Amino acid sequence: MLKGSILYQLREQLGADPPSFGVYYKNTLVALCHALEDHILSCGSPPLVLTAFQRGKWYAQEAKRYRQIAQHSREILIMAVPDAGFLQPDNPANLLQLSLDEADPVAAEWHLLILAPNYAAMVMCQELSDRDYGEGNLPQQDLERKFYGFWTFEEPLVLQAVRIVLEHVRSYDPDLSERLKAQAEAIVREPAATRTDLSGVVARVVTYLQTSQQQLINLSKPAAPVWEAGSDRLGGNLTANRLQAFLRMAQRIDAGDPSNPDASLQVSNLVETLGQLMHLPFGRLRRLRLAALLHRIGLSEIPATLIDPDSPATYQAFAQAAQFGCELLRSMNELRTVARIVEHQCEWWDGSGAPEHLAGEEIPLESRILGLVSYFQEWLVPRGERPACTPAEALALCEAGAGSRWDPQLLEHLANLVRLMQAGILIEPGRPQVSTSQWLLLATDAPSTSAS
User: What positions does the domain HD-GYP occupy (predicted)?
Assistant: First the structure.
């Protein structure tokens, strides 16, 4: 990592790697940036945009696109080493360019920082050095170039990076730095009527990533298929990035629920514990836990009727969300089993549920567990005038649906879990770590694996 670079300074300030930090192929970064740029064109909330393209020739390929983006932005700053095609004579007044010195560490970086009143997003990466690649491993194709870095929708992290970038700009042009700083401060002060629903941009990210994966596979032919041994470096990297897109979407949905902001995390802990008590195989536990983290991904908003988890309106809202979430997750072949778990979480034991009116053992076991545990967990938190239930009280509410909504045998396992909690033998699990990609890859299915 180059000392003095924006990424280096941000990591130093954080004291740790940011969430989703890893190694990305260039085609992955192109996909991420195009998805975020498309959102600028469609969201109706003009942002401040700060970018670094390494060299002017890379920006020249995107110059026309950025003139269009400028029409939907407050200010755009483009940074690059000024080789052929960088300085454009017909730029609009709000599209600004800064020529970087060849020796500037930022010249090795690729950034896209977007700050708007109602959302923030960032891609921040730095290309691997020849030493990082290792002897004989230098990329043979442009799209195979690799970068350290991360991407995020977390506004505090984006603001921190914006401040570092503007301080770097000050060393070149103090007046420009002040101009952009004023824009950033005005955006922070401006009240946002509503936070932007980023489900659309996440869906774009997934679509672009799927396309970019195929481009990279095509470039590397006649190599082995992505999921065969020895070529997992391509599929694994891109699969992890797409999973991060879904997880960030799920995290934003939970963040919009102040009464239950850790819903998915708590449900994932509880389903894993219950699954362990039931002696589920390790692979099924991994998929169940991932399904729990993503089980609310289809919600566009938290239904106001959730104050009563038993109301028909609440059930209808979650049943519809389960179907939308399932369709979204099915866009990834690797998540088809997880999608099936999410799809059937609202089935009822007596066959009166949705979407397929499955009954009894026809309902996938993982879906039965997820539906029961998410219902149980909701009763554990206060919402509006409804107080939080104790685990025993929440269990009693679940048992009222035995044989109709819930699998009676599952309720026995849940009762065992509650008894262990009451005895102090089992402590409620803490928040799981979802920022790393390693365990997420283990939770997915390779395309050759049949859904179970």
Answer: 238-430
